[in-house]
Design goal:
Helix content: 25-40%
Largest sheet: 2 strands, antiparallel
Order of helices and strands: HEEHEHHHEH
Distance between the termini: 64 Å
Radius of gyration: 20 Å
Shape: globular
Length: 203
Amino acid sequence: PPPPPSDPLSDPLTSPALTPILRDISLSFTPGSLTGLMGPSGSGKTSLLQVLHGAAKHTRGGVLQGSVLINGTPCRNIHHAFRQMCSLVPQEDILLPELTVNETLMFAAELRLPQSDTREEREETVENVMLELGLKECRDVRIGSVEKVGISGGQRRRVSIGLELLMDPSLLLLDEPTSGLVRTFFFVCVCVCVDWERGEGGD
């Protein structure tokens, strides 16, 4: 009988069924620095951020092989600790259109901040994040959707960033934070990232 067909997933690096996206990549982040990752569409920028944050294991259609080292230590050995100090702002804004800006951040604070924090401490954290991101003027405006008018595109992006800044991460990964924004909102988002990098939020 003819030999059984080979498994197309047995060797993702040589199989015609799959194309390698990331291979032999090394990078470093200096404390207090702002690093930009540039490349054409489909070059693997989002995949790299997901691998660093540990979200790649939840994606479909791909195979993750090899090792991810953080300061020379395999990521799997320190994954929980690394996730505690690293946050990822996804490319798409995942927000509830019926909630206001303040309600959105407070809802996230109730779920993600330590249980030892009091209600007043969580409210103070939310207020500080809104002040840092320039969201105070729209705090009581609904997020909105395509069908219902709400906050602007730049404000939506800043709310998404604020959801992660609530955790005061040491490393903040942003996937295309300015994509699709007009020049004014683009400039505001860049200023937010620069201010956070200079020590007003990150380490």
